[in-house]
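Please go through this chain and its backbone structure tokens and walk me through the local backbone shapes. Keep your notes short.
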Amino acid sequence: MTMANTTPTAARTSLASVTLEVADPDAAHRFHTALGVDARIGLRASEAPSTGFRGFTLALTVSGPATVDAFLGAATDAGAAVLKPAEKSLWGYGGVVRAPDGTIWKVATSARKDTGPATRQIDELVLLLGVEDVKASKRFYVGRGLAVGRSFGGKYAEFASEESAPVKLALYKRSGLAKDLGVPAEGTGSHRIVLGGTGGTGGPFTDPDGFTWEAAAPLPSAPSSNPARP
């Protein structure tokens, strides 16, 4: 499989915010605080119907296996359910949990051995969108002004982002993502996630797989119970 690297000197457009729509923003905020992502993910109230796999996951990349275990332990202590226990794989070491609000989180490292004690440091937070056609979705986003950082044919694509961006955006074949997470690929209803972009996205839009984009807004310091979109 050939990897194409097309990172430009500066991305015209990038993902600037991620907002999860949850039934209980206060409870979700407590979970995010326990996981250490409360400053990176926005929340707002929603009762939109959603069943099965919601088509995405949020993934934390960390330094080593002990740190993976520490984050997964914090997540389960805060009420998350284990979908895949942490274990070694071809790519490193990681595990998957489902948060009380239904969001699936993966915590992983490419390191197979620890070089130090566990930390609370998150090296990277990635939003993986499960899409039906990676190549078509990639073309759609390039047309909206995003720049491809890395691409593995029709399997995976990752977009360039500013170093200070709270979340990196990537595309993964939906069936492959569900398999990696240990859940059935079927799902209906709302994704319960809204993306905020800066640059050339051209205002609110919905991508080919139903993921909604709005103008980026500053992440809230505390959850709001107002379900209205800003």
